[in-house]
Design a protein that fits this description.
single chain, 49 residues, mainly alpha, 1 helix, 0% strand, rod-shaped
């Protein structure tokens, strides 16, 4: 039984770590998208075709 508890502990810790990495990556991507979109809207008058 002790082996099962150790496996569950490692799996839980790994899941939390992966969740944190995904959360940070998602927030960073969202911030980059907002900044890039704002810059595009700010400079839309400079675009000539």
């Amino acid at each position: 039984m002790e082996k099962v508890y150790k496996t569950m502990q490692r799996t839980g810790a790994c899941s939390i770590a992966i969740g944190i990495v995904i959360l940070v990556t998602g927030v960073a991507a969202g911030i980059c998208a907002i900044v890039c979109g704002g810059l595009l809207l700010k400079r839309k008058g400079d675009i000539t075709f």
